Amino acid sequence: MAKRISLSIRIVEGKNLPAKDITGSSDPYCIVKVDNEPIIRTATVWKTLCPFWGEDYQVHVPPTFHSVAFEVLDEDALSRDDVIGKVCLTRETLASHPKGFSGWAHLTEVNPDEEVQGEIHLRLEVAPGTHSRLLRCSVLEARDLAPKDWNGTSDPFVRVRYKGRTQETSVVKKSCYPRWNETFEFELEDGATEALCVEAWDWDLVSRNDFLGKVVVNVQSLCAAQQEEGWFRLQPHQAKQRLRVEGNLGSLQLEVRLRDETVLPSSCYQPLVQLLCREVKLGSQGPGQLIQIIEETTSTECRQEVATSLLKLFLGQGLARDFLDLLFQLELSRTSEANTLFRSNSLASKSMESFLKVAGMRYLHSVLGPIIDKVFEEKKYVELDPSKVEVKDVGCSGLHRPQTETEVLEQSVQTLRAHLAALLSTLRGSVRACPALVRATFRQLFRRVRERFPGAQHQHVPFIAVTSFLCLRFFSPAIMSPKLFHLRERHADARTSRTLLLLAKAVQSMGNMDTPVSRAKEAWMEPLQPTVRQGVAQLKDFITKLVDLEEKEGPAELDLHPLSLHAPPVKEGPLFIHRTKGKGPLTSSSFKKLHFSLTTEALSFAKTPSSKKSALIKLANIRAAEKVEEKSFGSSHVMQVIYTDDAGRLQTAYLQCKCVNELNQWLSALRKVSVNNTGLLGSYHPGVFRGDKWSCCHQRDKTDLGCDKTRSRVTLQEWNDPIDHDLEAQLMYQHLLGVEAALRKKHLELRRDPEAGPKEVPEDSLAQLLHVLQELREAHGHSPGGLHLSEPCHFLQLQK
Prior knowledge:
This is Ras GTPase-activating protein 4B. The chain is α+β, with helices and mostly antiparallel strands. The protein is built from 20 helices and 30 strands.
């Protein structure tokens, strides 16, 4: 039994952002923070006040997380990026929206007095005194405080206030992880109602002290408990909130959903999984077919999520092809017009989209990657629409002449023809590179469609059925938005975006088999039609070979999860490495660039991607993977991998990434592959041991317990992650529970329908499903999974 808490995040777009550049525009991007920890950075959208991102993320978070914040910044090449504003959604807000928060939210000003973070460790007790009881407050340490000084640290001290009396700790210089171990006492009168206030401040010599956060303790509750000790989350200065005018900083459109799942042991889900698998294996049709009933009772907005869960569930059971084949049959049985086939947002269409992203993403990268890279590198001006052509000067210095519209159009056609030729050439040679499971699924789709629409007048229909998924729903969207398919790290600029859009339109025309209807929409695409017609012939030849290639691999191989075949690296790419020996200052110049590869056995490195690899860390020896303080190396993108050597001693490797997204992707990958290791650390030092002390907390014992908690539960969901079978079964159970009323209504209708035939309740699949749901509901009711970890002191309250 386990808790799986995650955030589904979609950052859609922004509008009415303020201009931050002298051009009257901005270059906005978003940073997503979970409890002040930067997790995601979107791409920058250049020169706009109404950016569109359309980026989706799945973030796994610990049970104790409190909020997720979306900060919008303006990227500047020569100075610090300007903060535009932020949207903060608390866990309580997200929990109040079971189907997820969706809509526009106004950006608010980033107020320094509210930008607090971190926790403070207190020991509180009521003790007997000479004349009266004493309220004793021991300020032990703090962690993850906000850096307020230019050097990336703070000089924190704590101020304790009670009934007009104030006492302060000493100042700890240059640390966000201070340790004080100081105790303060106050006389406590009977019936006292005032609260004890513990405030953290950053000391400044020449300016006012900066507020770091506070904790307000209910003394009456403490008197009842007598003593408490624990870590308390620092809270902002509520009294200093500024009055804001909503909307003057613009707005963000967001879709955020909190999933808090208690995943039971695998055995609890077996009845549900076996029931669904039996239905797929039988492939039965009619009003009692479970898959068809699930589709009918699923709303349009939930269909993609249900399709993905079902697809992954059957993929894990080796039945993905059978499941998709069943959906093909259901769709074909209710389709009378060939030109409407797979054009709706049916369960079949959504499931195939998910299938291609899970099973075919590596194939997509191998086919499209070189073409997309070339488009980005060339940055050629391409335009086919005469109404949008920009005539510019051409020629060498001193001989400039205006480039004619005809020249622009001719050059654009030549450029697009070259890209299409390269794409088709790569595609024709990739038949065997296409995953066996994908080939088998397309083969089955082709055969089913040809059986449903025989005859010469429908000879194109089986090909269009394949291309409707391969081209229209997979290749073409990836060409238009390569970042969303992990082909590029950044969105394209305006010129490159136009080239990609025109290229995607040409691929769509080929996918539609160059029908008259597709040509009539945009007449200015006509110059490309000869190339498109040639491409249609080549595409049909490719599909013919794809579906004719028989399953020589054998059925067992086809049923395997495609990502488990040949075990490709979990993560690979260039990183800078530095292994400190604790001698002298550390600078970015001490890093060495190497190519790293993470597999299910080890983290290895090599001078180049093709050279021989040397193992750096055995996977079983990893004890933690965490970020390093920016001040340690002068970079905010350094991570540390803590591991044991052959002698059992703890060692640390410091690896520097080029951006926050790459940093979090590596941390996520390392945490996932080592999640079951024994001896994982619960704390670590975010600094380095320089000279004779830790740079973070100034402790002089190198073997000292870490001053910050590890964050092993914070990971990013990636397209190439292994499937979590129990979680997918739990997600399907949750969905079915939500539509249980509709399922019961359907069950009554089937029992009353004389055409449905006699049905005995024990043999009725729908009745069995309802019984399985009831058993799972009871299993969840008896599980302790509903209990959440919370802050240790139940009497801690904020003053209203």
